Sequence to fold (173 residues):
Amino acid sequence: MDTISRENNSMLPVGGIIVGVIGLLLGGYSAISLSKVNKTLADHQVKIDKVDGIEAQAGAAAASADKAKSDILALQRSTQAAFDQQVGPALATLREDVTKIQESLKKPAPVAGKKGGGPVVAGPGEYVVKAGDTGAKIARAQGCSISDLVAVNAGVNFGKLHPGDKIKLPAKK
Fold:
């Protein structure tokens, strides 16, 4: 005995056709969706290629920055070494010279002509300080600079000149 009756037999092919049509429709829809997915993937591939290009540029820039950093550090080390070897000792020498000059300015100026009772007379290349004289006034009157006057009179305090003091004059140029 057949499990399927004759009455239901006529519907079986129609059901198969309906299922087949539905399968075809789903397959067509799947093909269209797959086409859209492939197009989207192609669009994304272009973007991925751009990102890869940017990544390569960033890598090159990072390498360049690392090289610049190492160059700067090398330059810093060489500059520090040059300073330590050349500028540092020169500054120390200058400091010693300034200290010597400051010490010589602190020494009292030799007072000439105070031993005897007579007037002080200036010899060649000398000047006798008068009341109201300052180092600047003397330099101006003698046609020299104050620095030249100070240079030839080490130990003379030009802020405390007294009438009758003798100072040396720089040689005329």
Observations:
- The chain has a mean pLDDT of 85.
- The CA atoms of residues 58 and 76 lie 26 Å apart.
- The domain at 109-173 is CATH 3.10.350.10 (Membrane-bound Lytic Murein Transglycosylase D; Chain A).
- The two ends are 147 Å apart (CA to CA).
